[in-house]
Amino acid sequence: MERDLLRQSVSHHGQSLLSILKCEQSENPDFKYVAEDLSKALNRRDKEEESPILEQFIARKADLLFAPSWKSCKPAEEWQEESGEAYAVMPPLEQFMEVSYEERREIFYRDVERGDMVIGRVNSVRDFGLFVTLLCTAGGLERDIEDLEIKTLCPIRDVPSTGNHDDPLSYYQIGDLIRAGVKDIDRYHEKLTISLYSSSLAAHLEKVKLGVINKEDLPLHYTRGEKVAVDSSETYEKLLVSSLGLSNPLNVDYLLGKLGINDTQTPSLMRGLQSKHFKDDDFATTIRKKQSVSWALKCVKSGVDHFKSRRFVDAMNEYNKALEIDTNNVEALVARGALYATKGSLVKAINDFELALENCPTHRNAKKYLCQTLVERGGQLEEEDKLVTAEGLYKRAISLDDTFQEASEALEKLQIRIQKSLKLKELEAAKEQEKAKTVETSAEKLRKILKEEKRVKKKRKRSTSSSSTTSSSSSTSGEDSPSTSHKKSKKRKHKRRRSSRSSKKHKRRMSSCSDKTAEEECFPAPANTSASFLNQTSITKLMSEGERPLVKGHCEESGGRFVGPRMSENNKYGAHCGSANGELRERHKDRRISGERLEHAGNRRNSSSSSHSERSRRSEDLSSRGRRHSESVGGRVERIDKEEKTSQLSQQKALPCNLTDIFSQIAEFEREKKLKK
Amino acid sequence: MQASTSGADNEARESITEDESKKHFRVCRFIVETGVKLGMRSVPMATACVLYHKFFQSASLQVYEPYLVAMSAIYLAGKVEEQHLRTRDIINVCHRYFHPESDPLELDGKFWELRDSIVQCELLILRQLNFQVCFEHPHKYLLHYLLSVRSLLNRHAWSRTPIAETALAVLKDSYHGSMCVRHKPQHLAVTCLYLSLQTYGMQLPRGELEWWQVFCSDITKDEIETIMNELLQLYDMEAKSNRGNVLGAWPGFLTSAHILHPLNPNASTRQFYKIHRSTFSIFVISRARSMCPDGLEASRSVVLLTLGVKG
């Protein structure tokens, strides 16, 4: 029992209350502790308002009225300006009551506290601060203080600077409306100090902006109070009734929330209505749940009857009805799951069983049926070759029910099968790796060759000096239509970049045809001839060109690293093919291809053996097309063109003397091929 | 049923009135309890009580089963105050009120009969009240008054004194009696607040006007006192009523009349509940049969009763 409350009450009512209290609350253990203090607290009080009935009421209900739990605590919320729509914001009661000046002043100074918010008008601006006469309070405390003419001081240190290094006080003028926080109170001398810093405000008011405000920002209780002061016929009642907030149907809920009282559990002083007498089972929601379960069970029973007589549609209807009445009803879910399983929709059945087990993990039937369905579904998946999923299902079945033999047997079988398939895969992978290895070995050889050639070239570069003209002349002298090829090569370069795919295909074909036609011839040639005249870039470009089709067609497994010598081999193949056929129609494509090869230099690996075999296959397929041949020829030419363009001047200087050799050799090869064909 | 001599007549009438008011008290207690179990807010619960009281201002307890009227009043109040309650929930809670610890009703004929009777009775209430079912309650006034008074008090005094809780509790309990229909809502609100302030000995500053004069200009101190006395008598009635729950934990606090817990297997209560059980489960049918001996369906007979009353 709250001692202070009791004391206050007793002192108000006097001895009579105390005696009744003692009588009525004699059995109350809490009261005994407080009783001794109370007799000391009695005041001599005028007895005009003695009310025995009231005292009897207080005495009887004292255990409730003065219980500590009777008062509901509400945590302080962040303060928001009331718009007057949720409920009727009324002017301060003092104003209506016409409380006297002294009384108002007294209670104001009694009740104002540090951290409160006040609004006032600037009276004078001195060099040590601002003098502000208060107009009204804000932020919770609502008092009528305008005519009290309370003068407050806002010292200069509490005036924030406006940021432009002037005297902060110059920002304020006489007559400005200021909102400030109370910093210090001297209740004895009735002096107030205010501050314009937000830190001076209480926690729940922190967000409010302090400083100069407009008339619109004045609190509603003040503005309404002004109206009342002017118009004497405005009474509290009239104002309340005319206010919009009173007609808000939700104002009761809002205000109860403001006061911190829960609306569905409002307090009562009737003995029978105390909350401890209400049992949870008697509440509507609890009863409804129980009822839903029992109604749903009825439906499930009738559904099971239908199921047994093989009326599946009716059974499903009953189950769905049951689940509508009570979602997640375990029996209904299990029964529906069984129905799905019988009909063959195993996935839906599994879902239902899982859901049922979630709600009731110990349901025997659910477990049993679920195991069976899982095994069945696993079998289905096995046939569809989804072995891993099936394995997962079997494992789940076993985890649910260790003794389920079928599941463990099926799992074993499945595991054997998985292992077999894994082995097969391993073998395949091994084969592929071998192929890759063989590829690598030949690639390594080519690399070595190229390195040697590079060294040779470097020496030659230093020794020779050439001009671009010579290189160009050599290029022109090289082939049938070198000028056209020269120009075309430029275009090709652009086109190449765009049409990489088509060129890749071409390259494939090229490579295949080259493979077919010039296999034996090509091998010895690279080491001696083609590599020697080509510089680094050209070699890599050529290699990239040649490798592209190879990579595309056959070498995806082996990865994407480029082997230099390989490229040159391919180029030669291409060249041979071209010479063999002697068609120059589609150099464009060749050039394209060759350009791309040049671009992608250094990024591919070849599997020579496989590529050879595949190329031959492909060339057989595509033998009718002359493209490849011409492509190869054109490619050669373009390569040379590109060499010229891409290579630096120094390199170009190094080329010419070599190029003439090259071109002569190319011409020879082509002639040979043509002859052969 | 009436006594023969005039003196005895008066007494009888008084006793009838007292019996009636006891009955009304019990039924209103039933309404409030059911409202709590249904999660009703305070305003819809107030509407339900007002509907009940207004109905029996012009109707007789002998003709209409009060508990049925109460259930229908709850249902109707939910609709009026936009807190819709399902008849299924109302039936469940009420059934359990009269048959404690029983299983919920099955979806059978009895359930549908009860539901039908509630709906029919709702129509009956509407007709009896001329379809005027929108009432102004003291709650919003009381809450606004509380806010105004709060601003006048020291914040610490306010935070430690449960003035709001007591005032609202007294207001809620006032619905056990018919004062809600006999007084203006503002008067009731002022009285509750007055009672609350007096209980704790809180004194408001004095001005030209008293605070309650400001809130309600047409009320006098005496009126407040009168209403307050009525309110406090309700608490006495609870003590006398034998349909109350156990009062606190201290046997010494019990007044002369026995106040028993519904689950207390005491002979007198058992008797009392037997009567209730029977009336509840077949109240409509019994009433119907008593009025219409030719044995019509229960729901139809309720409609006939309506016509009988009005006609």
UniProtKB/TrEMBL annotation, chain A:
Compositional bias per record (Basic and acidic residues), positions renumbered to this chain: 550-559, 583-602, 612-624, 636-646
Q: Which UniProt keywords apply?
A: Coiled coil, TPR repeat
Q: Which InterPro entries match?
A: NA-bd_OB-fold, S1_domain, TPR-like_helical_dom_sf, TPR_rpt, TTC14
Coiled coil regions, renumbered to chain? 404-444
Q: Which residues form the S1 motif domain?
A: 115-197
Ranges annotated as biased composition (Basic residues): 485-510
Which SUPFAM superfamilies does the UniProt record give? Nucleic acid-binding proteins (SSF50249), TPR-like (SSF48452)
Where do the record's region annotations for Disordered lie? 451-528, 550-655
One Gene Ontology term of the molecular function aspect? nucleic acid binding
Question: Which spans of this chain does UniProt mark as TPR repeats?
Answer: 330-363
Query: Where in the sequence does UniProt note compositional bias of the Low complexity kind?
Result: 464-484
Keyword match Oxidoreductase: no
- Keyword Coiled coil annotated: yes
Name this polypeptide is given: Tetratricopeptide repeat protein 14
Provenance organism: Triplophysa rosa (Cave loach)
Automatic annotation (TrEMBL), chain B:
The record's annotation in Gene3D superfamilies points to: Cyclin-like
Note the SUPFAM superfamilies from the entry.
Cyclin-like
User: Pfam families per the record?
Assistant: Cyclin_N
Gene Ontology MF annotations:
cyclin-dependent protein serine/threonine kinase regulator activity
Acetylation: is it a keyword of this entry? Answer: no
Annotated ranges, domain Cyclin-like: 29-127, 147-233
Q: Superkingdom, according to UniProt?
A: Eukaryota
Recorded hits in CDD domains, A to Z, give: CYCLIN_CCNM_CCNQ_rpt1, CYCLIN_CCNM_CCNQ_rpt2
Coiled-coil annotation: which residues? none
Tell me the GO BP annotations in alphabetical order: regulation of transcription by RNA polymerase II
* UniProt entry keywords in alphabetical sequence: Cyclin
Q: Which family does it belong to?
A: Belongs to the cyclin family. Cyclin-like FAM58 subfamily.
Stated role: May be an activating cyclin for the cyclin-associated kinase CDK10.
PANTHER family, per database record: CYCLIN (PTHR10026)
Name used for this protein in its record? Cyclin-Q
